[in-house]
Amino acid sequence: MPTRLRDQLSLTVQQVSHGYRGFGTKAPNYQQVIEGLTGDGKQSCSTLGGQRSGSCNQDVACLSEGDPWNLPRRSVGAYQVSGTDFCTGSLVNNTANDQRMLFMTARHCIGPSDAPNVVIFWNYEWPTCRRPGDPSGTQVQPPDPNQSSSGTTFIANTVNPFGGGGCSDGSECSDMMLVEVNDEPNPDWNLYWSGWDRRPPPTICAQGPGNSTDGLCASIHHPGVDEKRITWVADDMQIGSIAGSDQVHWQPFWHTDPPELPNMPAGGPLPPAVTEGGSSGSPLYSADQRLIGVLSGGPAFCGATGTQLSDFYGGLFHGWEGLGTPDTRMRDHLDPLGSNPEFIDGTGDTGFALSLDSAEISQCGFADVQVTVDVSSSGGFADPVTLSTIDLPAGATDGYSTNPVPPPGSSTLTLSNLASAGIGSYSLSVQGESGTLTRLAPISLNLAEAAPAAATIIAPVSGSTDIGTSPTISWDTVAGAVRYEVEIATDPGFTDIVYSATEATEFHVVGSSLSPSTTFYVRVRGINDCGDGAWSEAVDFTTANLICISPDAAIPDDEAAGLNSDLVIETSGALGGLAMTLDITHTWVGDLIITLEHVDTGTSIELMNRADGANTTFGCNSENVQTGVSDTATLSLQADCDDGGNPNAYPEATYRPNDPLASFIGEDLSGTWRLNVSDNAGADTGALNQWCLIPTPANSPLIFEDRFEGTP
Q1: For labelling alongside 698, which of 142, 164, 425, 495 has CA 20 to 30 A away?
Q2: What pLDDT score does 15 carry?
Q3: CA-CA-CA-CA torsion sign (181, 183, 185, 188)
């Protein structure tokens, strides 16, 4: 800078990372469900460090030059976080085929706050094939990791299934993490963006003829964050669960007789290859070389047999929709065109992509429809692209303003004579062809000439009681409807509407808590471009006396201030009694202090204070507080924690708090209620998933026991 401007410069060194251990020697985040394994390459199961990866693994350099597995091989990278070797991940393609630097790995490896500190190493491979099973082959100095990208940005993740990862609902814990690499790729690195397949089981894997890799499924990974390896699957993959997950993981069983690849040196029988520490987050591929999941962990190790010769991969079949928001699902980012394909192929060389200004078209009547088709290119591709329409509705005609289109360029598609097609929903596609390359861009077309007919509500059933305060409303499909409107009122005439929403599907989860112990009326109607349909017949239901909030928030580790969760209640009325439920995941209950406060009145009680265990110094060493809390319970939260490292520290339906919940009797239910959960020791972590109040109005019988059956 010029001297006269130097006083305007402010520079902060935020972090310095020193890779003092060298590359390929430490992989701290592998999740191993079977303890005590010390076989070749599995030392990282028992320590945070570990040694060189196991000799049973196969170098990717063993693949022949023409093997199709060389394409996804170019997608996979090893990465460090703040200078420490961590895990594996891979580049993934998206429907725009634009080579956006989307990198998929496992949520248990990194969280959103780690993304800026990720450094990815590409093409970190042994240059020649070493014979699997030869221990000397793994002890040599690894290649120089000189191709790297620094820094990523968090995009989306599902839930980590392991302890402290906030996994309260196993069906959400598929362990997927998507980040975007900040650096532009160097063309000399010859990277590849793998295709993906989000379809649920079955996935077919089979050994091809001879030593062919045809038909095999595989994982490509960096065991121990060492050189890149490939592990084969020859049997159809099934669904399994690891840690807290529930049926959202693929479970491949590793090939017991892997193929003798062309570049392998001669030698004895080949051992089954596996995954190891550092392999976490690596891609699992179908036989079509499309990513279907990412590695969470598992029991496999060099020398394993039977059921131990398998691992668990969080499935894209779940992660596609994930938890239903843009930052908890993969769909928005892997399908920016909104075309909703079940699978796509990879990209890595020169080519083109199609995108539409509107992929979902709905109208009343049969006027001509126009769609702008943009043709983009990658890698300098410039050959003309010929456009055509696939699955055009019978009787309709199409035309393009420019055809073929030299990329980058655009053309206008006009769909005409739609009256001949008639009312209905149609799925068609724009196809682009250039040489051997073909791309598709799907279109959804909905034509109507009248408003939809009346809907019929399926759930809740009219007259239902004890319905949750955030219920799910569902109804039958109405022909011609493109969206639905839902209204909830406190009277059958719908003069007092307390909730309304618009929904594209045939169900809706009420997004804000309804008042407890109240009768409501719900109705639904379909809507299209011709107008609003008739309202359904109203259905009445009565909510349970249960008021909940789901923070799904991490509890700060070793921080006395803890986590505050505020539940704001508008319903007024003096309390005759109070009970509650708690859903907290934590790997050491004895670290926790939990209090409940009515902020408006200032009344505060202690529910538990570092629950007692056999070791009175550190408190109860079991996991999770998932139970009801009531003054009428016999057992105590403080004294009756089920000590001994159990996954459910409170197996009974209800427990008694340290201070009585009766302290709130006579106070108004309305106002702000605050639950504070603090972690008062280091290392163990957890999350506050949900908590609920169960109020009893004054002058009502104080009966809680039946409310806790099956809670939470």
Answers
A1: 495
A2: 64
A3: negative
**For 52-68, what is each residue's pLDDT tens digit?**
678 899 999 999 988 99
Q: Is the pLDDT of residue 18 over 70?
A: no
The total of other beta-carbon atoms located within 10 Å of residue 25's CB is: 17
Closest CA to 385 of 364, 366, 371, 404: 404
- Tokens, residue 11: 């520079």
For residue 543, the model assigns a pLDDT of 87
Catalytic annotation, pick one of 108, 221, 249, 598: 108
Which of 175, 197, 226, 612 is flagged as catalytic?
175
**How is the chain split into domains, by residue range?**
43-331, 350-448, 457-543, 547-708
CB atoms within 10 A of CB 184: 9
Q: Is 175 a catalytic residue?
A: yes
Quick check: 1 pLDDT over 80?
no
pLDDT value of position 36: 41
Q: How confident is the model at residue 40 (pLDDT cuts 50, 70, 90)?
A: very low
The residue behind tokens 């035309």 is 399
Q: In percent, how much of the chain has pLDDT > 70?
A: 90
Q: Which residues of 559-580 are buried (b: 16+ CB within 10 A; e: fewer)?
A: eeebbbbebebebeeebbbbbb
DSSP class of 49: S
Contact present, 642 and 622 (Cβ < 8 Å): yes
What is the CATH class of 547-708? mainly beta
Asked if 447 and 427 count as a contact pair (C-beta separation under 8 A), the reply is: no
Rounded average pLDDT over 484-512: 91
In this structure, which amino acid lies at residue 554? A
| pLDDT at residue 554, rounded to an integer | 86
- Identical fold between 350-448 and 457-543: yes
| Mean of pLDDT values over 433-453 | 89
Give the active site residue among 75, 174, 194, 280: 280
SS3 70: helix
Instruction: Dump strand ranges (E) for 379-436.
Output: 386-390, 397-400, 409-416, 424-434
Class of domain 350-448: mainly beta
Residue 262 predicted with pLDDT over 90: no
Residue 347: closest CA among 64, 67, 78, 96:
96
Is 517 considered catalytic here?
no
> Which DSSP state fits 490?
S
- CATH code at 457-543: 2.60.40.10
pLDDT confidence bin for 449, thresholds 50/70/90: very high
Amino acid present at 182 = N
How would you classify residue 417: left for phi > 0, otherwise alpha for psi between -120 and 50, otherwise beta? left
205 contacts 237 by C-beta, under 8 angstroms: yes
CATH number of 43-331: 2.40.10.10
Confidence label for 272 from pLDDT (cuts 50, 70 and 90): very high
Neighbours of 7 (CB within 10 A): 8
Q: Is residue 104 over pLDDT 90?
A: yes
Establish whether 416 is a catalytic residue: no
